[in-house]
Amino acid sequence: MLLRGLLSVLFAICGFTIAENTGNGTSQSVKDSPPLLLVSFDGFRADYLKQYSFPNLQKFFADGVLVDDVTNVFTTKTFPNHYSLATGLYAESHGILASHMYDPETKKEFSVANDTDPFWWNEATPIWLSVQNAGFKSAAAMWPGTDIKIQNQTATYFLKYNSHVNFEERLGNLTKWLTEDKSVRIAILYWEEPDRSGHMYGPENTTRMSKALKEVDDNIGLLMDQLNRTGLWDKINVIVTSDHGMVQCSDKKLIDLNTCLNSSVYTVVDLTPVAAIRPLNDYSSVYNKLRKCHPNMKAYLKAEMPERLHYKNNERIQPIILVADEGWTIVLDGKLPRLGDHGYDNSLASMHPFLAAHGPAFRKGYRQQSMNSVDLYPLMCKILGILEMPNNGTFNNVRCMLVNQTCTELAVVVGIVIGVLILLTTLTCLFRLMKVRDMSSSRPFARLELEEDDDDDPLLS
Ligand SMILES: *[C@@H]1O[C@H](CO)[C@@H](O)[C@H](O)[C@H]1NC(C)=O
Ligand SMILES: *[C@@H]1O[C@H](CO)[C@@H](O)[C@H](O)[C@H]1NC(C)=O
Ligand SMILES: *[C@@H]1O[C@H](CO)[C@@H](O)[C@H](O)[C@H]1NC(C)=O
Ligand SMILES: *[C@@H]1O[C@H](CO)[C@@H](O)[C@H](O)[C@H]1NC(C)=O
Ligand SMILES: *[C@@H]1O[C@H](CO)[C@@H](O)[C@H](O)[C@H]1NC(C)=O
Ligand SMILES: *[C@@H]1O[C@H](CO)[C@@H](O)[C@H](O)[C@H]1NC(C)=O
Ligand SMILES: *[C@@H]1O[C@H](CO)[C@@H](O)[C@H](O)[C@H]1NC(C)=O
Ligand SMILES: *[C@@H]1O[C@H](CO)[C@@H](O)[C@H](O)[C@H]1NC(C)=O
Ligand SMILES: [Zn+2]
């Protein structure tokens, strides 16, 4: 009886875990799950949260989740990171590697201003397509890639990219789609600030940045109000995050390639802070000159890129990659292009964004120090109840953010089960010992009856 009780406890725990792990793109869970809204405020450096005040954002995660620091992917640029958030893949695996790319086989060129050829995006399946492939709909407002026919499909509802459409209009369209079409399961929203101000004024211009960040916080307020007014707030799961951080640049930190190399011997596919270089013929002479070019810039042959950057295994990565140190700018004309920039090594804290979440799927008042941006994808798949595509994320890194997960409390549960087991074993031994004493005095047959009735023993059930 004791054993049976313990086993049923164990089965209950295991059954719970097993039931949670049977995600299926077409299963019941998608039909019942509330929609998910994913929002990116471009260039929201993690430590802005500590330096500036965000009354609305604070309210948002006070009864939700905050992750202080998100390790994003290299290169820490806008397009690679937005595609990583949507796919859970490193840049080398999803194929959007930089703001400017060149494909040596097809001789095609990519830039953020000319991004519409699906060729560049087809190496991965972003989450909005997985939702559609599971029979549901998606809605998108300017998130990179959502207006492109990736694997022959755009997002179900989308806005063509236009930087002049303001936050309210983007949000208005999304909430309209969410309320009018109940089969919309994922909505994704992109906003250009505080990236734009960070580039223009530099993140250390506190006057300008506090103004830009107040506007961002006002927009978060607008978002909460709008969801509240449309009756979505209590039902919807909302994730607010960003693609990368920002660091101050300076005209005292310039690396001019022309001081090292004659421009006629190579072409530049992308320039700063990570340069992609194609030598025209003599690779080793170009590499040797670039290697010694500047103490604040590293030169790598493609095959020698450090493993941790996950920036090696793709045709679109050029033969030589130059990486400037934090705050340094690679130039060809001796002039500083921007007061703030990003794109640097993704191990730098200044390149990291944050993440906050709110909704029925999330814990309330839960705070976590760190995660990887690729972990977001398996988290979203779990919330939506869809199957994950192969990815580089780890659900275990983020499972504690969710209410329905056993999480680290599993250790506590195991502790309690073991504790109870020890206690019951001790009690059983004592009990048997007492019975043996009873038996030795008299009435041997009564003892046998007792044993048969063991299941209904009041002390142990
Ligand atoms: C997922 O759902 C489909 C369609 O209902 C079904 O054929 C398939 O067996 C399911 N897969 C799993 C792993 O449950
Ligand atoms: C955009 O890129 C394609 C190649 O992918 C090229 O054919 C086209 O000319 C480019 N358009 C512009 C406006 O640069
Ligand atoms: C792409 O979609 C269109 C219509 O949505 C369809 O006619 C066409 O066959 C599809 N092409 C491929 C390659 O799937
Ligand atoms: C949707 O966006 C368009 C601009 O693309 C804007 O004119 C319109 O007002 C927006 N709709 C709502 C409901 O906000
Ligand atoms: C911030 O930017 C403004 C506008 O460019 C400029 O006038 C001001 O001097 C800058 N402040 C600092 C501290 O750099
Ligand atoms: C939603 O609206 C109600 C009623 O106006 C208000 O009491 C509540 O504070 C609002 N909640 C949020 C999160 O804005
Ligand atoms: C670069 O090389 C070209 C061709 O070899 C030569 O004409 C030019 O003077 C060189 N420029 C510099 C700055 O050395
Ligand atoms: C990332 O995931 C992809 C898809 O599963 C896989 O091909 C690739 O090897 C992974 N990268 C690393 C570094 O594990
Ligand atoms: Zn960005």
TrEMBL record:
Keywords: Blood coagulation, Cell membrane, Disulfide bond, Glycoprotein, Hemostasis, Hydrolase, Membrane, Metal-binding, Signal, Transmembrane, Transmembrane helix, Zinc. Hydrolyzes extracellular Ap3A into AMP and ADP, and Ap4A into AMP and ATP. Ap3A and Ap4A are diadenosine polyphosphates thought to induce proliferation of vascular smooth muscle cells. Acts as a procoagulant, mediating platelet aggregation at the site of nascent thrombus via release of ADP from Ap3A and activation of ADP receptors. GO terms for biological process: blood coagulation. The keyword Metal-binding applies. It is an enzyme of class 3 (hydrolase). Its EC number is 3.6.1.29. Its cofactor is Zn(2+). This is bis(5'-adenosyl)-triphosphatase. It comes from the Eukaryota. One of its GO terms (molecular function) is metal ion binding. The keyword DNA damage does not apply. One of its GO terms (cellular component) is plasma membrane. Belongs to the nucleotide pyrophosphatase/phosphodiesterase family. It catalyses: P(1),P(3)-bis(5'-adenosyl) triphosphate + H2O = AMP + ADP + 2 H(+). InterPro entries: Alkaline_phosphatase_core_sf, Phosphodiest/P_Trfase. Coiled coil: none annotated. It is a single-pass type I membrane protein. It is found in: Cell membrane. Pfam families: Phosphodiest (PF01663). The chain crosses the membrane at residues 410-433. Residues 1-19 form the signal peptide. PANTHER family: BIS(5'-ADENOSYL)-TRIPHOSPHATASE ENPP4, ECTONUCLEOTIDE PYROPHOSPHATASE/PHOSPHODIESTERASE.
